[in-house]
Amino acid sequence: MVNFISRKDYKSYPISLDSLMSYLKNAHKFFLNFTLPAIRRKLLDAIDCSDAEDIGFLIIKFYDEYVKEVRIHMEHENKNVFRYVEQLLKGHLCNNYNIGIFASKHNDIDPKLKDLKDIIIRYYPQKDNELLNSVLYDIINCEHDLYFHCLIEEHLFIPEVMDLEERLKKDSEIREIEIEDYEEKQEKLNKAALLSEREKGVVACIAQGMSNKEIAEQLCLSVNTVTTHRRNISMKLGIHSAASITIFAIVNKIVEIPGKS
């Protein structure tokens, strides 16, 4: 963080997204609960805002509207964006939201402070008003801090969240493939379980290239019985050719691959 703000190398160092998010949350609290209220108090002490049509009153009104915008901006991040990222850190992806949606709508919140500073300097000139000079200095510092706060969100926080989303998507795709493989294996096992021991014996003989007559002799059955078994096997497995039955027998270990011990 320090390297980024001081414009030194920061890309060589790993970023803890959890720690970065804690920093941003604390920064929001500092701006909303301390910095911005303190500037308002100083403004009230430094300028005359008793007349609703006077520039002093308009300055306070401008500032209050700005603070309202900042509060909405930061509370949205606190309640929606950070909660979304917390779920990501737990390994939970969201189907209808991603950080790109936030990034596309994210806007800087510091430019209006520059406008306020310019309004005060241009339209509320005061000689020997040290309190006004002090509040102008605070506004400049706040503008600077908010500028870097937005940069941190755009150049550190958002890219890091995007990387996490990509990792979770890849993990999810791998899990889906594993589940599909598992289900396919289970389906094959289930199909094998549908066969009786006698039918498995017939399948083994078919896999060895025997004719119906040879199977009948091997298993001490009539040819008609073998034919009936083959018809039942085809119905249960949904396969009909001898080649397909042979593959099924090998996959389900009813027979071993020739030459393989």
UniProtKB/TrEMBL annotation:
It comes from the Bacteria. Transmembrane segments: none annotated. Residues 188-253 form the HTH luxR-type domain. One of its GO terms (molecular function) is DNA binding. The keyword Transcription applies. One of its GO terms (biological process) is regulation of DNA-templated transcription. PROSITE patterns: HTH_LUXR_1, HTH_LUXR_2. Gene3D superfamilies: Winged helix-like DNA-binding domain superfamily/Winged helix DNA-binding domain. It holds the Pfam family Hemerythrin. Residues 165-199 form a coiled coil. The keyword Plastid does not apply. InterPro entries: Hemerythrin-like, Sig_transdc_resp-reg_C-effctor, Tscrpt_reg_LuxR_C, WH-like_DNA-bd_sf. Keywords: Coiled coil, DNA-binding, Transcription, Transcription regulation. PANTHER family: DNA-BINDING TRANSCRIPTIONAL ACTIVATOR DEVR_DOSR. This is Helix-turn-helix transcriptional regulator. It comes from Phocaeicola vulgatus (Bacteroides vulgatus).
